[in-house]
Design goal:
single chain; Arc Repressor Mutant, subunit A; two-stranded antiparallel ribbon; globular; LysR_HTH_N; DNA-binding
């Protein structure tokens, strides 16, 4: 029996309450540029196994492979390119919101 398409499967929520770990998105962005999980780990002060596992967990949660993995490194799949095209506007919005709050004197911590 075939698995249903990713958009028909229930979202797998993490302990943070998000359907994925935002660090995984950061790793995906870096890997798309650096073409190597090892280079991502070095650049972001993480373990290669953590980078690889985080990206794999994200891929599992959305139901597509974002990277082709080889002994020479990684490269984005077509699905990975579409994912980046879809997620980059949201990443820019998050960055702008954070920088806007920093310019206004800081971000308050805590819950309302």
């Amino acid at each position: 029996m075939n698995d249903p398409p990713s958009w028909e499967r229930p979202v797998q929520w993490t302990s943070s309450g998000l359907p994925f770990d935002l660090r995984a998105v950061r790793y995906v962005l870096a890997a798309a540029e650096l073409l190597s999980f090892s280079k991502v780990a070095l650049a972001l002060d993480a373990r290669v196994s953590t980078v690889s596992r985080s990206i794999r967990d994200l891929e599992d949660s959305i139901g597509v492979s974002l990277f082709e993995r080889t002994t020479m490194g990684v490269r984005l799949t077509d699905a990975g390119s579409r994912f980046l095209d879809d997620i980059l506007p949201a990443i820019f919005q998050i960055e702008n919101a954070i920088h806007g709050h920093v310019r206004q004197g800081g971000v308050n911590s805590g819950m309302a």
